[in-house]
Amino acid sequence: MTIAINHISMYTTNLEDTKNFFITFFNATPNKKYHNPKTGLSTYFLSFADSQVKLEIMTKPDLSTDCGIHTGLNHLAFSLNCKERVDELTKQLSENGYKTLSGPRTTGDGYYESCVEGPEGILIELTQ
After folding, report:
1. Omega of the bond prior to 104 within 30 degrees of 0, cis?
2. Is 120 within the bounds of a domain?
């Protein structure tokens, strides 16, 4: 039996800003917005070139943002295939107001990466 990741999901308080973040910085392609009028849930599935894994971003009217420590999704890791691209995108994100939390640097296990805080505080890991 083959098992593969189909999608990763995250809740956000601002669906359009989050969608635009991933379009602008990661060349994501969104599907048509889904909205469930009964529950208020709205979602996009974002696709990325050369990847079968999609990112589902979701919001709903009663979504709480004051929950303190949250469990669940910790970070999204994007492979950029070269050190220069890690450096460039880290700089671009920083110049656009996103906080660089670490790097770019080579980790103890040999990965070249940086970590940036994205929308809703999600950690975005940029790897070689």
Report:
1. yes
2. yes
Q: What is the C-alpha radius of gyration for the chain, rounded to an integer number of angstroms?
A: 15
pTM of this structure:
0.74
20: domain CATH number?
A: 3.10.180.10
Enclosing H/E stretch for 85? helix 83-95
Query: Are 4 and 40 in the same domain?
Result: yes
Convert the pLDDT of each residue in 22-60 to its tens digit.
Answer: 999 999 999 999 999 888 889 999 999 989 899 999 888
Q: How many residues does the chain have?
A: 128
The whole domain housing 32 covers 1-62
Q: Is the Cβ–Cβ distance between 120 and 83 less than 8 Å?
A: no
Residues 40 and 86 in one domain: no
DSSP class per residue in 55-75: EEEEE-TT--S--SS--S--E
